[in-house]
Design brief:
Blueprint (H helix, E strand, L loop, with lengths): L1 E3 L5 H10 L23 E14 L2 E14 L5 E2 L2 E4 L7 E6 L8 E4 L2 E4 L7 E2 L4 E9 L6 E5 L8
Antiparallel strand pairs: 1-2, 2-3, 3-10, 4-9, 5-8, 5-11, 6-10, 7-8
């Protein structure tokens, strides 16, 4: 199993934040949680990957499993999005994603770039909270290059 934490694409995320239009603050929820912010706070994205294999009717299939955890370390809520580059492996495919396939159009691949957007119910990440995205795939083992948090108030670490 491989775990990677660290600044991956901080400059890209920071540039995206500086060039993105300001997102208006949202009214506090009924339960009095703070409103989401556009002021930079601290978020961290951690990736754990593992090569796995399982049997299929057609024979043994080699695949991969990954978990991405996004944590809001700041004092204000944030609205998140995440993307990464698979690398040059043309046979890599996501076959199932948790926390991103419940609603239509919340995850997509553009060539080797993969994007995950929030569901309506997990759009706002409250301070101190973590959301976990799990995925499995087949084909080549992805590299998860250039992990990028492109959300109001988050940067990639």
């Amino acid at each position: 199993m491989t775990t990677r934490t660290g600044r991956v694409a901080g400059a890209l995320a920071a540039a995206a934040l500086l060039s993105a239009p300001a997102t208006p603050a949202f009214a506090a929820h009924k339960d009095k949680k703070p409103a989401p912010t556009t002021v930079a706070t601290d978020c961290v994205a951690t990736i754990k990957t593992a090569r796995t294999s399982w049997s299929a009717k057609s024979g043994r299939t080699v695949g991969w499993q990954a978990t991405i955890k996004v944590t809001n370390l700041g004092a204000a809520p944030v609205i998140w999005n995440i993307s990464w580059d698979y690398g040059a492996e043309p046979t890599t495919h996501v076959t199932k994603l948790w926390l991103g396939d419940d609603e239509p159009a919340t995850w997509r691949a553009d060539g080797s770039i993969f994007h995950v957007s929030p569901q309506s119910w997990d759009r706002v990440l409250q301070p101190g909270k973590t959301l976990t995205i799990g995925l499995v795939g087949d084909g080549g083992f992805p590299k998860f290059d250039d992990l990028e948090m492109s959300s109001a108030g988050c940067t990639a670490h």
